[in-house]
Design a protein that fits this description.
Helices cover 39% and strands 20% of the residues. It is α/β, with parallel strands linked by helices. Helix 1 packs across helix 2 and helix 6 runs parallel beside helix 7 (129-137). It starts with 10 loop residues before the first helix and ends with a strand. 31% of the residues are buried.
Length: 285
Amino acid sequence: MFVNSNDLPALLPYYKIKLKALYDEKEIENIFHYMVFFEFGITKSEIRISTRRLSESELLNQRAIVKRLLTAEPIQHVVGKVEFYDSIIKVNNHTLIPRPETEELVDLILKEHGTPPLTLLDIGTGSGCIPIAIKKNRPLWAVSGLDISENALVIANENASSNKLAIDFIAEDILNPQQQPSVKYDIIVSNPPYVLVSDKEKMANNVLQFDPHLALFVSDEDPLLFYRSILNYSNLHLKVNGWIYFEIHESFGKEMNALLASFGYKNISVLPDLQGKDRMVIGQR
């Protein structure tokens, strides 16, 4: 046996030995606790007192998990799940791992709009995490998500189903939209690709290897490409006096303010994330 015992806490030293070349001790502990929660439903505070013993098949599965981690695959992809705004969301290599900044975007929308029925569209929905979080907290709203990736939309539909939520998902290329739905939305939200290609050299290898580049990167020559296309789409599909919410690259707050103004938006605000970086732009049509 590759561990001293089949007690759950005995796995942690195994993780530390195997993963020490890739991660520091604190990060390995975080990975381990993440795995334990999603694989066994046991929280970090419960592990030390846990009497959970692993079967032979579960131990073999742990070896398989560590083998994948040794390729630098993110633990979120290995276990296939993340927690986002109190919902469990399935993720894989076709979807981005939701970031805390996107939870801040959801939080902003919920704080600014109450429970009366509204319509909302999330453009570039990926795993569906934004519409799922919104619908869960605003059950009377009619919520939709749009994405170019059919593979991502499969995951988004599975996530809506597993969270027992009715959400409409649409396959569409926002850069070249073909459908012209008659519905007009009260709110359009988007976390589109905004990472510059030149930023790749600053990024962790596991992000570059395992997150879908289609959902991450935009060319340095036209960094606001997706925002401009979404604003053009919103001219047809956002109600007058409706609101638009964007997550943005920290370097383009002023440019995004100017872009929304050029489309005639009012009440424009550039808002920081919890790190103090420009991260959200909102405006009213």
